[in-house]
Amino acid sequence: MLWRDFGEMYKKTLPFQYNRNMSDISEKNSTNLTPRQKLFCDWYLKLGNGTEAAVKAGYSEKTSRFIASENLTKPNIQTYLAHRRTELEELLGFNKATVIQDLLTIKEQCMVAKPVMEYDRTKRTFSQVMKETENGEEVGVFEFDSLGAVRALETINKMMDYYTPTKVEDVTPINKEPATIVVNKSYAHQEPDHPAT
After folding, report:
1. Exposed end of the chain (fewer CB within 10 Å): N or C?
2. pLDDT-derived band of residue 4, with 50, 70 and 90 as boundaries?
3. Are residues 101 and 130 part of one domain?
4. Considering the entire predicted model, what is its pTM?
5. Same domain, yes or no, for 105 and 25?
6. How wide is the angle at C-alpha 96 spanned by C-alphas 147 and 50, nearest 5°?
7. Would residue 127 count as lying in a domain?
């Protein structure tokens, strides 16, 4: 197969459609990529799996894992992927900020208390479950979706990199030794009140 034939095949097998203006932008940023590498990148963005993307791009199944790993470490491919992600975000109107806003909305909706209802067969209606407080008053029972709220918060934390440990630096000057702390200095020279056993 000739490279020009492969280029035509590349255009026919794109995993998603994009307009001509976007392709012009991508072409400027990827002048040093082969058509197969571009196809690999587009499939990688769609599938999120390097090995599958390599197979879809036409690489051998035996070497697809190695090729995917190698391709994803190349700076020109990383640049192309970053530009394509930006283009897709602009096209879809979808980015980190919108995802986080949606997750916050989900968390707020999960935290709204909803009444616990039960079906009364005699009246053939739903009624709220009631419970008695310590004062003897009957109040309605409410619940909220804590699992949904926790999942939304965990996802936000991962996206914002709150799980990565903070780096603590030693601020002790190089010339000086660390200071020693004496606890209970006034009692340091006194005998203990009770003898050791």
Report:
1. C
2. very low
3. yes
4. 0.46
5. no
6. 90
7. yes
